[in-house]
Amino acid sequence: MRRTQDTLAAVGATLGLFVLWELAVRLFKIPPFVLPAPSQALEALRPVWGAVLGHAWQTLWTTLVGFALAVGAGVLLGAAVGTSRPLNLALYPLLVGFNSVPKAALVPVLVLWFGIGTVPAILTAFLISFFPIVVNVATGLASVPPELREVLKVLGSSRFEAFTRVSVPFSLPYFFASLKVAITLAFVGTVISEIAASQKGIGYMMTSASSQFNVPLVFGGLLVIAAMGIALYGVFALLERRLVGWAYRS
Fold this sequence. Notes:
There is one protein chain. The chain is mainly alpha-helical. It is 82% helix and 0% strand. Helix 8 runs antiparallel to helix 10 (215-244). The protein is globular, with a radius of gyration of 22 Å. It starts with a helix and ends in a 6-residue tail after the last helix.
């Protein structure tokens, strides 16, 4: 019952936002080339819906590949940083420094190395979603109370058993929290690369539409990206609730 109420509240808030947006545009008579109403953005998608689906699929699978690479590499590096103090001291400043570099500035370099197309988009999605996973996994592993490790040590458990039975379960809430953040960032990375150097994808479609002053279609592309991001965020939120619901109070 409570979850149904929460879902209805979220849907109601979203619909309310779109209604306010629609009313504001029509009340103040804002031109579509400045700010189109939601209905105008959706209407702009309808004639080219087949092409939009193709671009959306390109953006989606590119994002998922980059995200999957980020999860794999982020978990491994986060585990190393979170369980080893020397590695933490050596690598954490480098990770922070690398994350401070705007990923949009790396796109021209990736294009120079790999050419225009899918590979730079995958790598940009990977680079922009990698850091939150590393930090959260490392934080979760480093936050395990030392008393728990000492108890297992007294009971004769090996370091591997202590890691799998205590450290991993303790860090899972941090890990799933990072997935929800990282998947939305992965979309940002993909679209940045598609806008800068690609011939397909929602970012490319938005760039083409803006060059033709088709602002409603640009906003339609934004709505498509938002919908995909919300859907994947919901998937990981559901997995989090199913797998580590024990870590949160109702």
